[in-house]
Amino acid sequence: MGSYLLKRLGQSVLTVFLTISTVFVLIRLAPGDPAAAYAGPLATTEDLARIRAAFGLDRSVVEQYLLFLKGILTGDLGTSYSFRSPALDVVLERLPFTITLALAAILITTVVAVPLGVWMARRADTTRELGANVVTIAGQSMPDFWSGIMLLTVFAVLVPVLPASGFATWGGLVLPAVTVAILQIALISRLVRSEMAKNLTAPYLTVARSRGVSERALVWRYAMTNSSIPVVTALGTRFASMLNGVVVVEVVFAWPGVGSLVVRALETRDYPLIQATVLVTAALAVTVQLLVDLAYPLLDPRVRLGKKVSA
Amino acid sequence: MSTTHPGPARVRRSEPRPSAVTAKHLARAKVTRQRRGSRLKLWAGLVCTLLVVIPVALARVLPLPGPDQQDLASRRLAPLVDGHLFGTDQLGRDLLSRVLHGGQVSLLVGLLAVVVSGVIGVVLGASAGYFGGWVDTVVSRLLEAQLSLPLLMMLLLVVALFGPSIPVITFVIAIAQWPEVARLTRSLVLVEREKPYVAAARVLGLHRFAILLRHVLPNVVKQASLVVLLLLAQAVLLESALSYLGAGPQRPFATWGRIISDGQDYITTSWWMVTLPGLVIVALVVGVNLLGDGLRDRARRRKVSTP
């Protein structure tokens, strides 16, 4: 257990390190000068040189990289060019909004997708299941920016019951969360369906049924417990990828999260801000993955951490 | 006396043997329902896909105004007005023509991306599965790492870096998609390499690469190719998301995501500029997904019936 945890922690740190290093190199390869973007079109060469010196961009890339690594250890990720405040603070200020959105979306997904998947599994290969199947396919076929704009038009413009953008009230959370959830519901409910269909026809379920276990317990206690590992893994992975920024949906709804922050930072070539965002979100996503892995033994007592499951 | 006895000789051959199973039962049987379901999916998918693909392919031939032909006198005309089936946009360009021409780029990028990601995925997945050892370790780590990467962020970064040209965007989408193919191929090859014919080929002294290329891969490719349609659907969606964010191909024509983001500002007054291009994307992607799903169902059933 202890050594497994250490190994996984090491892997997580390595993943974050490689990610952030890749991003560091990539943004410096990119054309476009942050000093020019910062100073505007009227800046003189001397202005640009002064700004570059102030940003530390006149140093060599290796030197910048080492300074950056040192910054990670001391918690100083530089000053954002466009916000003129510490980049880490800017990201941490936005992070709760993305976490709120991701939590709301994953909650909606779980509440809708799991019962839907179970319903589909119990009616496997009937006409009604085919109908539900087509609906989930439609759900995973809609571009999220489009379904977002459509929801926005219907519920904020035509029938103004919900705010269109931003996060002033809790009502503002509904439309973005539903938009994110549509795709996830489609994917997760199909997974639940296939896992449950496998378990509902398993011999152990027939045995349990012959012992007089109620149908509800058969589905929710017997089959669901055995389907939970793949489902929880998928939910965790989805949640982790949402923390990496639900970029498109945040842009559509002007949601003040890290996703829309990244788009802005990329446009203004705000190096410290891009780096801080990637560092924070990658670290969070890796942590969620790790927590999901650690939860396996709780879901299935056969699992011993660090060993392959022989199910 | 003997003539009234219904002997076995009097039962005609053409009559079905008496059975408790009626035609009604057969029609309700699980296998029949499954087959009906997958056939329905295949047909519906084919219709939806062709409904989009044929007009897109014929965009240049159809009697439409050019996609960039502006007519400021007929700005934001509603659909069906003045012969504009999809209406016009804020610059008086024919929306249908824009959607069809943009669709050529979207589809081209999608198809190329599937080919590239398929090749990368099959090569890496097959070598990881067949050779094992450090090759497997490296590929598996890469697969895991990509799961925890901020994918869309990286894609935007690469497009910002190399410019939004068609090859760059194709490559970027392929990079996003190869793990799926690689994971599938790897697991299929892992099963395949334990089969006796591989051992036989090894005994015959064939080179490892020859066994993998000429014997293992042909047995795997058919199953692996089932994901192609699902990948195409994802590629089209990803391309539209990138172009919505302004990182899509700019030339020769604006693609679907870009058309929608252009129309977004006019959503309250001109609903069609966002709704109709979106519906075209949905129709295509639903169609491709249904086709892929139907094919997969059918393949799964075949596998069950002929072990």
From TrEMBL, chain A:
Q: Where in the cell is it found?
A: Cell membrane
Any one Gene Ontology cellular component term annotated for this protein: plasma membrane
Query: What region holds the ABC transmembrane type-1 domain?
Result: 95-292
Residue intervals passing through the bilayer: 12-30, 97-121, 142-161, 167-188, 231-253, 273-299
Q: What's one GO MF term for it?
A: dipeptide transmembrane transporter activity
Task: Give membrane topology per the record.
Answer: Multi-pass membrane protein
Keywords assigned:
Cell membrane, Membrane, Transmembrane, Transmembrane helix, Transport
**Does this entry carry the keyword Transferase?**
no
Record-linked InterPro entries: BPD_transp_1_N (IPR045621), MetI-like (IPR000515), MetI-like_sf (IPR035906)
Protein family membership = Belongs to the binding-protein-dependent transport system permease family.
Name recorded for this polypeptide: Peptide/nickel transport system permease protein
Native species: Umezawaea tangerina
Automatic annotation (TrEMBL), chain B:
Gene Ontology cellular-component annotations? plasma membrane
Name the PROSITE patterns on file: ABC_TM1
**Pfam families of this UniProt entry?**
BPD_transp_1
Q: Which coarse location class applies to the principal site listed for this UniProt protein?
A: membrane
What GO biological process terms does the UniProt entry carry, in alphabetical order? transmembrane transport
Instruction: Give the UniProt subcellular location, in the record's own words.
Output: Cell membrane
From the record, give the transmembrane residue ranges. 42-62, 105-131, 151-176, 196-213, 225-247, 271-292
The source's superkingdom equals Bacteria
Q: Which InterPro entries match?
A: BP-dependent_transpt_permease, MetI-like, MetI-like_sf
Region described as Disordered: 1-28
Question: What keywords is this UniProt entry annotated with?
Answer: Cell membrane, Membrane, Transmembrane, Transmembrane helix, Transport
- Identify its protein family: Belongs to the binding-protein-dependent transport system permease family.
* Name assigned to this protein: Peptide/nickel transport system permease protein
This protein's species is Umezawaea tangerina
- What taxonomic ancestry is recorded? Bacteria, Bacillati, Actinomycetota, Actinomycetes, Pseudonocardiales
